[in-house]
Amino acid sequence: MIIVLRHDISPDQKEETRHFLQNHGYKVREIVGEQDTIFGAVGLVQMDFREVELLPGVDRVIPISKPYKLASRELKKEDTIVSIGSVRIGGGRIAVISGPCAVESRQQMREAAAAVREAGGVLLRGGAFKPRTSPYSFQGLGEAGLQILREAGDEFGLPVVSEIVGTEYVEICRDYLDVLQIGARNMQNFELLKRVGELKKPVILKRGLSATIEEWLMAAEYLMAHGTDDVILCERGIRTFETYTRNTLDLSAIPVIKKLSHLPIIVDPSHGTGIRGKVAPMALAAVAAGADGLMVEMHPHPEEALSDGPQSLFPDQLERLMRDIEAIAPVVEKELERIPNGISSSLKVSGKEVKKSPEQQEGNRRFSGEVAFQGMQGAFSETAVHRFFGEDCQAVPCETFAEVFKHVLNGKVKYGALPIENSLAGTVHEVLDLLLRYPDIIVVGEEKIRIIHSLMAVAGSSLESLKKVYSHPQGLAQCSRFFEEHLEIEREPFFDTAGAVAHIAEMRDPALGAIAGREAAKVYGVDVLREGIENNPRNYTRFFIIARLETPPIYSPNMAALMFSTLDKPGALFSVLKVLAENGLNMKKLESRPIQGKPWNYMFFVAVDLPEKREIFDKTIEEIKGTAGDVRVLGTYYNHGG
User: Fold this and answer.
1) For residue 55, what is the enclosing H or E element?
2) What's the gap between Cα 294 and its chain centre?
3) pLDDT tens for each residue of 422-449
4) Strands 335-336 and 93-99
5) Radius of gyration in angstroms for the set of CA atoms belonging to the chain, rounded to a whole number
6) Which residues pair with 95 in a beta bridge?
7) What is the DSSP secondary-structure string of 236-264?
């Protein structure tokens, strides 16, 4: 049952309710949601719900209809996010787990770990115990394989995951692994599920060969009922009559699971297809269907693999796949998960804590401080903040772009997020002007998000009841077709999209609507009447992440931005662009901007790919200084949004 607690419940009343349930034989989990705090109570006992509703501090009791109680969306409305060191799986992320099917040697795993980290993977996989159909096939290196996997993960800063095949290996796997994997053949090995659940460590639970979705969720329930909250479901294909592929990859399970359960779900296209050439398209299809991550087999030399070579990607194929995922992630409103700078993201080495310097620990932590943005809670800018920094950071709303800069300058916040360009409306010139005005501020990151406009109104409203709709002028313009189809609705400009939603929520008038991102509906408690009403679905906004000059980057930079003026002579601009071309710098953007106070004089804004060798970029800037007028590097930064 779900016990919804009153907002004004006292600590003593909460403990009294907890003890009452436990004394009646229930296991109790406390879940703090966006709106309510609840107790989830599960057990074999039956009792009259009214007895619980009479307890002080209890608002109401809701029975859970599903046989899987703890895994059910009925128990927990928000998505579960599983933390593994600095890596998060779930929410708005796409996490990629990769590595060979089996650990074969130290050299093999070292090469594999280097390739996974270079491509952008966040967990290293490798089988030490291999349950094989044939007793004569390679069965794995056992504990020696776990040790090799652990060493490779630690060297390249990757948490490690491997399959546990029996209860007798629980203690060994606990000491070496950050994440334990329950394979398809063991999905209903209930004694193993109980023992692994008791470890309270993250678990990847693969779907059984012929398991229904309910059976799969019931297996997750075993893990959760025995102690672990961090269960990651993995669809790896089911057995059907089709024989061309190894299995039939059931991507329809992704939206089904999303509706039924709060647990994150990843997809294994390697076992789902068994054919190397089919892995990438099915991986991208899984991302499009809403998967929270992928588990992809990659071997440094697949032709030499002792296990599953035909389905293992080459390192360059994994890198290409990662680039494709990063390109489509904004379309599904997600972000490719990355490991921040630092030597290691692993948790333990052979059961012992890894000793790191404070600098290394800082580099491996998600930023949990304050980040300023322009707008109100629920604005697209706030979404960009959390996409770049994660949910732990505190987004601080500001009224103006200038206020964001001032907050960063005076140290009130460490970072700020500001829109720099919209794919339809163009460059936000005020932000460029502010970057020029404040030389102590630099760009340290970039995030791209898709702008999806939703029509919102208070509860009880309908499209027919609306007479006026508020939004930012750009939001109204980007939804002009909607208004052409509904001439009876008046457009009312507002200073901010999220602010428009806050306004109609306060007015409580069913005749008023607002256009904003759907996150604003959650923040202000209004209903979404229609989603995706923008004219052009290819509507994206790029955001710059700014910081003080001395602030170290969170991610290794791969882009650079600069502004320069040109001399008043023929070919002045060409001479600067020639320097960029001769040094091999790929230019991504070029735009002119009038110089304030100097009519008919212009600055040029340029964004370039940062070369692998930083000295090439530094040399290029020095050459440009000898050719152009004023030159200013706005920052070298990580382009997080593709």
Assistant:
1) none
2) 13
3) 988 889 999 999 998 999 999 999 999 9
4) parallel
5) 27
6) 293
7) --B--S--SSSSB--TTHHHHHHHHBSS-
**Per-residue pLDDT tens for 468-513?**
999 999 999 999 999 999 999 999 999 999 999 999 999 999 999 9
The answer to whether residues 563 and 606 touch, using CB atoms and an 8 Å cutoff, is yes
Cα 502 from Cα 498, distance rounded (Å): 6
pLDDT > 80? residue 349: no
Is 543 an active-site residue? yes
Instruction: Dig out the tokens for 136 from the structure.
Output: 């004569």
**Which tokens go with 124?**
């290293």
Proportion of the chain above pLDDT 90, given as a percent = 70
Ranges of H-type helices in 252-355: 253-260, 269-273, 276-289, 315-328
Our answer to whether residue 605 is catalytic in this structure is no
Q: How many CB atoms lie within 10 A of CB 602?
A: 13
Domains within the chain, CATH numbers bracketed: 2-62 (3.30.70.1140), 82-353 (3.20.20.70), 454-531 (3.40.190.10), 555-642 (3.30.70.260)
Task: Give every CB contact of residue 624 below 8 A, 6+ residues apart in sequence.
Answer: 562, 564, 576, 579, 580, 631
Active-site residue, from 497, 541, 566, 620: 541
The residue from 543, 544, 604, 605 that is catalytic is 543
Nearest CA-CA partner of 124 in 87, 90, 106, 149: 149
Task: Say which residue, 377 or 641, is predicted with more confidence.
Answer: 377
Listing from the earlier edge strand, what are the strands of the sheet with 468-471? 490-493, 468-471, 512-516, 454-457, 527-531
The amino acid at residue 488 is: E
Angle at 411 (CA atoms; ends 408, 417), nearest 5 degrees: 25
Q: Which two tokens stand for residue 494?
A: 């507002």
